[in-house]
Specification:
single chain; 245 residues; alpha/beta; Rossmann fold; 8 helices; 13% strand; binds NADP nicotinamide-adenine-dinucleotide phosphate
Length: 245
């Protein structure tokens, strides 16, 4: 029996990287997408291959339709299809609303939201005829509650949640499930902009008293990809240590 195939966007670092490691070491064939972090992506590929995993890498800017289509085509050609897309690539930035420029607004929406639209359209070209497949989108608690000084990020992630719900309704009759993970504060390079006091404050606001780990988000994706999640679609699962209840 051939193993299933997952395409993970933004898998060179952080949550995407942990997700690639989890799925690959549990027998899935994994396409690791990256854009800027080529050395990290290739090192991850080599490490996983040394463990006997089946992994490939593909450099693509997920905001660019032609690059996304080339990535999806390559994944299908190498692995013979795509069973699961995890839309994980994202960027964040802390800035006062009045200081956001048009280009910063567009980039935030493009990387966090337009990418989900482009990559989902790409994989659906082959999932729809097969009437089989799953999409998992990585949003954020800020897409649920909103965050001061991250209005563009919050708007993009709220958009991801809305897209997830609407697409789940549209694709349910085609036996394709679409779900969303809205993580709390997770220890990755995305937090680089926060100083020690701000990080301590975020921990203090979290009932479990700590930041989440990338692997804890990967584990949620693993569950949503599993047979046990067969009846789940259009949902938002939020691993956040109790930050948002
Ligand atoms: P991270 O460590 O900064 O990693 C971001 C990933 O996105 C990198 O692999 C990066 O790849 C990729 N990426 C960025 N722009 C891209 C583009 N144009 N095309 C392709 N890939 C691109 O961040 P993270 O914390 O793992 O975040 C992963 C996801 O979780 C994001 O959607 C984020 O919004 C969400 N999230 C994170 C947290 C948190 O606290 N960390 C909380 C809630 C939600 P390259 O470096 O190769 O360009």
């Amino acid at each position: 029996m051939t193993s299933e195939v997952v395409l993970i966007t933004g898998a060179s670092r952080g949550i995407g990287r942990a997700t690639a490691e989890l799925f690959a070491t549990r027998g899935w064939r994994v396409l690791i997408n990256y854009y800027h972090s080529e050395a990290e992506a290739l090192a991850l590929r080599d490490k996983l291959r040394q463990q006997g995993c089946s992994v490939e890498t593909f450099r693509a800017n997920v905001t660019d339709r032609s690059q996304v289509e080339a990535m999806v085509d390559t994944c299908s050609r190498i692995f013979g299809g795509i069973d699961l897309l995890i839309n994980n690539a994202g960027i964040a930035n802390s800035i006062l609303f009045q200081e956001i420029t048009d280009s910063e607004w567009d980039r935030m929406i493009d990387v966090n939201l337009k990418s989900v639209y482009l990559c989902s359209q790409g994989v659906l070209r082959q999932m729809l005829p097969r009437k089989r497949g799953r999409i998992i989108n990585i949003a954020s608690i800020w897409g649920i509650t909103g965050a001061a000084c991250e209005v563009h990020y919050s708007a993009a992630k709220a958009g991801v949640i809305g897209l997830t719900k609407a697409l789940a309704k549209e694709l349910g009759p085609s036996n394709i499930q679409v779900n969303c993970i809205a993580p709390g504060v997770i220890a990755t390079e995305m937090l680089t902009g926060f100083n020690q006091d701000e990080l301590a404050d975020l921990k203090a606001q979290t009932p479990l008293g700590r930041l989440g780990t990338p692997m804890e988000i990967a584990a949620c994706a693993w569950f949503l990809a599993s047979k046990e999640a067969d009846f789940i679609t259009g949902q938002v699962i939020s691993p956040n240590g109790g930050f948002v209840i």
